[in-house]
Amino acid sequence: MTSKVTRNNTPRVVIVGAGFGGLNAARALAKAPIQITIVDRKNYHTFQPLLYQVATAGLSPGEIAAPVRSILRAYKNVEVLMAEVTGFDLDHRTVQTSEAEIPYDYLIVAAGASHAYFGHDDWEPLAPGLKTIEDALEIRRRVLLAFELAERQAAAGESKTPLNFVVVGAGPTGVELAGTLAEICHHALAHEFRSIDPARAHISLIEGGPRVLATYPDDLSRSAQEQLHRLGVEVRTSTTVTQIEPGAVYFGETRLAAAVVLWAAGVAASPLGKKLGVPVDRPGRVLVQPDLSIPGHPEVFVIGDLAAAKDEQGKMLPGVAPVAIQQGRFVAKLIRRELESRINKSLGAPSFSRSVREGGKFDSRPAFHYWNKGSLATIGRAAAVADFGKIHVSGFIAWLAWLFVHILFLIGFRNRLLVFIQWAWSYVTYERGARLITGSTYLPGWTSPAPAPPVATQPAPQEIHTGAPK
Amino acid sequence: MTSKVTRNNTPRVVIVGAGFGGLNAARALAKAPIQITIVDRKNYHTFQPLLYQVATAGLSPGEIAAPVRSILRAYKNVEVLMAEVTGFDLDHRTVQTSEAEIPYDYLIVAAGASHAYFGHDDWEPLAPGLKTIEDALEIRRRVLLAFELAERQAAAGESKTPLNFVVVGAGPTGVELAGTLAEICHHALAHEFRSIDPARAHISLIEGGPRVLATYPDDLSRSAQEQLHRLGVEVRTSTTVTQIEPGAVYFGETRLAAAVVLWAAGVAASPLGKKLGVPVDRPGRVLVQPDLSIPGHPEVFVIGDLAAAKDEQGKMLPGVAPVAIQQGRFVAKLIRRELESRINKSLGAPSFSRSVREGGKFDSRPAFHYWNKGSLATIGRAAAVADFGKIHVSGFIAWLAWLFVHILFLIGFRNRLLVFIQWAWSYVTYERGARLITGSTYLPGWTSPAPAPPVATQPAPQEIHTGAPK
Fold it and tell me: Is the ipTM reported for this complex over the cut 0.90?
């Protein structure tokens, strides 16, 4: 089985992954006479920097995600496939999915990253991470459910499970989760419970290293820790989690009761990186060349969180959206340039596409340079840090910068406008609009693992006229 | 175990269910010196009349649902419990939940209704109904997934599963689902696929009776059927579904291939109705007295979809929001009046609450009268019917009336404003903002039942400083 895109001679670029890297590559390529296929196992692009807002009930999934098809609708030469990529055949230049093989002239792999539990995969159901919409909904479910269960137990006069929330890992995700949880407890949920006081919930942020936001300059780390403290978060640095069990986290001998544990500690690259058959680093990122292609295959590029790319000083580029966006555009430009030069060379040749495939020789390419416009990390309401190289900013101004950049970059006008209104509204009212507990009511260490729903006896049918048999 | 509300002598009203009936009863009671406990198994109220918009990706769940606690936050004498009610002890006046017994002086049961499959419960996984947020998300998932799978198969050159959508039951829910599906195929999804044409999807609306919207006057039924026809929906009346299997629906010998089957054919009252131990009708609705109390227990009321209440002509009241709202307010007023008259009678008595419980005698009560302001059913974009008694309206004007009433009634200002913006936006752009496929990628009759996800080999941990063990 082959994709229908094999049927003509237009050069073909296949992009795996519709994150920031893949999407920007597709857009930058789309104006050229190229056939582009973008494959993702989801039908939507997720604006990952705002995932923590879904996890903390501030935004709905639909407000930070948009269908890949909608985003790319205007580009008639872009085909979007929702499919799971299972592997690659680099020799025959095809991408394998569960149902078809998709041939390519150029391949861009932008499959992203997931969580790492450092060999403790059994912790995953006890301490969910935050990489997908589903992750965010699971975290939201657990956090909200903990308050509901506490209220129910308190109303029934039972001993309460302590309302402790533990966030493991004080990188940007851990810091924003802990800060926003604190905000919720003190504001959004205040005055809504009768038997418990949400403001007495305890939020701990656990970090193995000596400081929070380790990739930021020292002074901003200190500022972030102070801002967390002001929000009511207890920060424990140089503290290593040794065990997680339902309802508790251990640091060596110390046991901390925990209603909800969230995991923001480690990142592992997509397993697709290893399937390219070239060297990867410990987290599974592909060791790319300076031009972001892989050794021995100049027609295959790896970008975004899946790529282990270095800057001029030999320092690893961080797994953030601006890097992926710039890499996507860089690779697209490179491919367009090469295809255009080949069009000129092969003028009159019967198969343009074949000439590319048989060409073999790739012109010398420039190296990718990351233009770092600065780093922003949000902590909570009017709390953030910003690192613009020589200028370091903290607090409200940094938060405004963060807000501006993130609303500006949200893909699609509709989302941008709605998110802005939502944000303005909740800033004024302290409300969290998306506080729905959907799915199961199981909370590890609190409710019994599989509560059997009461069996509903099937009532007799109502006497109305319908298409169903009588 | 008893709820803490037993600890004082304020009269106690327990409300089961936070739908339109329960919520309006709670609000109307909240201003009186009464302790109110409202119990629901969900933490949110669902604005059911707009559920079909979630099912068809027009609105996000958070836009038509709001936490019960938020809605009732201002009423300090209202306690909200998220719990599953398992039964009632009418003699001892307690409501049983999985964890506690909640005592009451008055009880209002407003537990609503669910789908009925007329003895074919095996059809449920094949043809989901639309009563909850989870139902809506499941329908959304299936509808969107069908288009994605069709595109993927067509791109791979495989024979396509026909893009047939079958809606069973042409009551208000079936009509709005079918109409909105047609709208999506012709507008929202147009120009987004490369290998299939969504406009060629086929939508069938199956009705066992002779006409659509059977509870509406003849002329409006005819108008609705014409409007459906104009939207491209094939209506089959007097057609009875005899079998549903993965990928197909049967009417006797006739087989209709179906990518997605939706069930809007039958309603069954909550099984809690039967647990009251009084007579119920065939769909399980409680046969209430004219004052909405149950025989032998004047302190127990049943309202909303769970009540089989009749109007002056002996005609069953429909299971719609206005009936539930008016019943909730009626019962609340009745309870307040009785408690106030007892306060006057028992002045100086040590226990006010006890005097109510031991009083036994209930004053003669008025009967509930439903004030029918009219019925509205929407069909799709600018298509609806409205029955205002002597005045029958169809088309755009009816749709405007429907829109106005529904936006006006959406609970909570934030939702009202956002939904309005959303609606205005999608009316102008034809966009559907919430087109996310979350959860499984299984579609009965299309994908294999349990597709095993590719096993991700666990990459080695990244070398960053975190709270996790090294």
Answer: no
